[in-house]
Amino acid sequence: xxxxxxxxxxxxxxxxxxxxxxxxxxxxxxxxxxxxxxxxxxxxxxxxxxxxxxxxxxxxxxxxxxxxxxxxxxxxxxxxxxxxxxxxxxxxxxxxxxxxxxxxxxxxxxxxxxxxxxxxxxxxxxxxxxxxxxxxxxxxxxxxxxxxxxxxxxxxxxxxxxxxxxxxxxxxxxxxxxxxxxxxxxxxxxxxxxxxxxxxxxxxxxxxxxxxxxxxxxxxxxxxxxxxxxxxxxxxxxxxxxxxxxxxxxxxxxxxxxxxxxxxxxxxxxxxxxxxxxxxxxxxxxxxxxxxxxxxxxxxxxxxxxxxxxxxxxxxxxxxxxxxxxxxxxxxxxxxxxxxxxxxxxxxxxxxxxxxxxxxxxxxxxxxxxxxxxxxxxxxxxxxxxxxxxxxxxxxxxxxxxxx
Length: 404
Prior knowledge:
Blueprint: H1 9-21, H2 26-48, H3 57-71, H4 75-85, H5 89-93, H6 98-111, H7 123-139, H8 144-160, H9 163-170, H10 180-196, H11 206-227, H12 235-251, H13 253-258, H14 263-270, H15 273-287, H16 310-322, H17 326-334, H18 337-342, H19 354-366, H20 370-378, E1 385-387, E2 393-395
Antiparallel strand pairs: 1-2
Helix pairs in contact: 1-3, 2-3, 2-4, 3-6, 6-8, 7-10, 8-10, 10-12, 11-12, 11-15, 12-16, 15-16, 16-19
């Protein structure tokens, strides 16, 4: 390879010729790739290596643009570039300059437009994409075009790959309830499903994930409440991601109604998820009123903010899992689910949907279920409401704050 001085105009002009020459069509793309791909690879390694001392954004931008044009609608070049350059893409995605990140994402989007390229064949690329979402959220360095491109790529993974296989790639830390890339992926999946619907997705991983995180939340909350100490520092992020995962599960309700014995719903009902959701709800009723600011940095913020909507999300999860299944309703009623929901059926200005979620979940658990109806009657005078002759809960109007 010819050695170019840093900032070489000769190199820039050469890369522009390669980039612009691709517009002549597939035959020209093939010729340019055969003639220049080895040199481009060496240059890309040189200009992305922190140890090289080369830092020229113009050259790096031209390199990624040239590669992007070489692979556009050219399957054989796509396969070639993926095999030759795949290990370099995490460096490009993590590059500190957003313009370079943007052109790199365009390159990866063009690459992933064919069945020849499976993004999951290289785990570091997936991790780098998810880390990019984390970076944008943390630093608020949110260029809409960068975020959109990254989301389009992850969406293509969700559409073309098995999401449970994706999760298995990410779920490698047995001792951790949650890792940042896992949280980022669940947020992407939730956004994709809200945008496009569940379709044929199964997402069976949601059940063991929710079981693990809700058990962690329950244990951490009870431990903090009994010891009157600060909760596990991981609790806030686990609660927030559990909330997103629970909401993702509830979006599948339309699919549950259309598909008899939907595997995701069947998996939820055959697991301990209903009991764990009730346990987390009960623990939150004791834990959340006891929260105080955890540090000086949070004194000016509402310390409950990171737990907002956790209880409503849990109750919506319980109602969808229960549905019209009498056995699941019985399991929920027998572990205190009715009492927990009734204790949420008061007006809370910080969680405007809490009372509505509680009353709806109670209506689901009580409908056509005599033993749950009897459990409510056995509670006697409650601040929530009374059962009519048909076993339907008639809620009291106004604020109800008394616990039962």
